[in-house]
Amino acid sequence: MQALPYAVPAAAALAYLNGRHAFTYDWSLLSSLISGSVSGALSQKRDDLNLFNILESHARSSRRDHTWIMFEGRSWSYAEAHSIVLKYGTWLKERGVEKNEVVAMDFWNSELFIWVWFGLWSIGAKPAFINYNLTGKPLLHTIKTSTARLVLVDENGRGKFTNDVMTEHGLVARPGDAGMPEGRQAKFEYEDEPEPLSSSPKQKVESQIQEAAGNSQPQSRKLEIIFFDQGLENYIQSLDPVRQPDSVRQGQKLPDMAMLIYTSGTTGLPKPAVVSWSKAYVGGKFISGFLNLKRDDIVHTSMPLYHSAASVLGLGAVLCAGVTMCLSKKFSHKTFWTEVRASKATVIHYVGETCRYLLAAPKSPLDKEHNVRLAWGNGLRPDVWEPFKQRFGIPTIVELYGATEGPGALFNRSTNTFSTGAIGRNGTLAELVLGRNLEVVRLDPESGSTEPVRDAKTGLCQVTEWSEPGELLHKLDPADINAKFQGYFGNSKATNSKVLRDVRKKGDAYFRTGDMMKRDQDGRWFFVDRLGDTFRWKSENVSTAEVSDVIGKHDAIEEAAVYGVLVPRHDGRAGCVAATLKDNQAPHAQTLKSLADHVSKNLPRFAVPLFLRVTKEMHKTGTNKYQKHVFQKDGILVDQIEQTGDVLFWLKDGTYERFTAKDLQNVEGGGVKL
């Protein structure tokens, strides 16, 4: 049969239009979003938003024997997990936990984390995930701000809750229950806290809701801590799997709190972010669709479950798709690929600098011996992106941008180099639908202020041009902020600080991300810097992200964090790099000269780091994000830096040389002009 004369040109035209406007890409993005949103709305109408119900539906379906969780060589099907979760719910009811009560969890990654989490949901309670890296004041702060009276801790965390530690931070030991085995329970009272505003479970729930809205400040005086050991786990497993009635899980709306997840605390004490049922339910449905998870997919994560990326978007998406999660206790580049191969994982999850660590590990003939078709997460830096894909033979990267407390996110599925390094991508249709909820507003580059520039006549914010950096904002309903942004639990001041008014028109409202972004005319979004990370030097703004990308491409650099430091008798802040060298090698003269040449060649003169701090170990959060403030507080104070075992260098005569106490005296005395 003869081909139609117009078929070839028509196909070419369609291909061109699709390439120009990204219709097929947008269809995947928008259809996943619409499907998730519709599912959430229908679930709210049925009054079954609690994700325990999804676990139960799988356990009662043809998927009942399909593996849900894999951990350290063991696996549990959906039906097995459902039964265990009910047993944990039964035990929690024995401990007096009631509907809507907040219970704090301090657990490392394990199946136990999941049983406790879903056990709480099965009885209508709300988990508060505690970062297991926290100790002392930050740990007690997170527990206190959760308003929990009950804290559940695995064996790894026992040493953080000794009587001496608790007494040091204002708690007084009380006698435990006579029926509890010695060493499994501890009880305390807050020494300086007022009596709770309410004591009955119902009043407590109402108080918590009021507090979340900023209307009151309830605090529980009593604190009970239960440590999980094998004996307790065996006891719980011996219980009958009693299913609580639907009523304990009902009465929830999409904006209502599903759990508390804390901010990373990189610049201060962690804040409890309210994670709504909308994020948990719609987010899980959307991610499962956008990643195109299939019935035989196995998703591997070694990221901590206390973080929303691994829990809400990771395990939540796996649950919504009815597939399998392979969980690792903790990330290690030495065991990562071994676990991925053993589990036959098809999707891997990363956060922060995870991919950089994997790329920095010694090469192996087995680098491409795996079943991985896709890597997804957030924080994959542009300088790592393509080398990571090529070395490990991973065809697709799905990068996302968002915050636990934020009302929206950006997504980029990248299968070629067009969107390499972009944190988000929208085609023409997606921009019409989603772009209207986003704005990038101009900041004043001269003043260095973190407040947006406003029009002198209208008082409204100035919107940036294409590819011009500015702060990313998400549109909110000014009459109902809580619909999209639930804020920080019990902290109305912090919540209100994230809302910006009168942006495009009088009376409107937007969520401040605190991140500098730029977008281009091809629909790509690029991260520029965290607001406040950019510093001024020589009357120019220096982007720490830009400098980090350049330095990270030098062969000797393992990791690098860039920040500004105050220099005596100089205006602004000079650039400083805290870096670890590959194989922890000593900073030889040849390496220092090569690094100086590299940054001088690839950066504007004002952005070239004048100081280099060589360190053995980077300070970072549990999700592999750098804590630059730890280095920044030392500035260029040589004695303080060397007490930590680090060495400081400065750019002099075309290379980095050792910076000494005498050099600092010369700078302070005005004898040196940088």
Automatic annotation (TrEMBL):
InterPro entries: AMP-bd_C (IPR025110), AMP-bd_C_sf (IPR045851), AMP-binding_CS (IPR020845), AMP-dep_synth/lig_dom (IPR000873), ANL_N_sf (IPR042099). It catalyses: a very long-chain fatty acid + ATP + CoA = a very long-chain fatty acyl-CoA + AMP + diphosphate. Acyl-CoA synthetase required for both the import of long chain fatty acids (LCFAs) (C14-C18) and the activation very long chain fatty acids (VLCFAs) (C20-C26) by esterification of the fatty acids into metabolically active CoA-thioesters for subsequent degradation or incorporation into phospholipids. The transport and fatty acyl-CoA synthetase activities are genetically separable and are thus independent activities. Esterifies VLCFAs in the peroxisome matrix. The VLCFAs are actively transported into peroxisomes by a PXA1-PXA2 heterodimeric transporter in the peroxisomal membrane. It comes from Polyplosphaeria fusca. Belongs to the ATP-dependent AMP-binding enzyme family. This is Very long-chain fatty acid transport protein. Residues 197-217 have a biased composition (Polar residues). Keywords: ATP-binding, Cell membrane, Ligase, Lipid droplet, Lipid transport, Membrane, Nucleotide-binding, Peroxisome, Transmembrane, Transmembrane helix, Transport. One of its GO terms (biological process) is long-chain fatty acid import into cell. Residues 58-426 form the AMP-dependent synthetase/ligase domain. Residues 189-217 are annotated as: Disordered. The keyword Isomerase does not apply. It is a multi-pass membrane protein.
